[in-house]
Design brief:
Shape: globular
Distance between the termini: 20 Å
Strand order of the largest sheet: 1-2
Strand content: 5-15%
Radius of gyration: 13 Å
Low-confidence stretches: none
Mean pLDDT: 95
Largest sheet: 2 strands, antiparallel
Structural class: alpha+beta
Number of helices: 3
Order of helices and strands: EHEHH
CATH topology: Phenylalanyl-tRNA Synthetase, Chain B, domain 1
Helix content: 10-25%
Number of strands: 2
CATH class: Alpha Beta
Number of domains: 1
Length: 123
Amino acid sequence: MAQNVLGSELQPCSYDPLTGWFRDGCCNTDSGDFGVHTVCAVMTAEFLEFSASAGNDLSTPQPATGFDGLKPGDQWCLCASRWTEAFEAGVAPPVVLESTHARTLEWASLSDLEEHRFTGNTA
């Protein structure tokens, strides 16, 4: 079983919306996941605006691909590099550490992730 950034078993991120590289609700990854979709992030309006301005519009529905678009409060397996870009820009979304894959530590430090730990209810 995959491990999270805390060294324990990776927990699900979201089933609604259904997220993950494998669309299994978890931020699992493999060698084909070039985007490294490993950060279980809680969307904020500020982050969604930043992501759209950086070329990845996560808010707009894409019916052809079955993507309904994300809204603030949704949990999503975000690319580790996008989270790091947002962190450097001061708009990193909160992170559910228990649901964030250990591979994320190749892109971000545990202390930076902990600084953005989501403390509300998890989906």
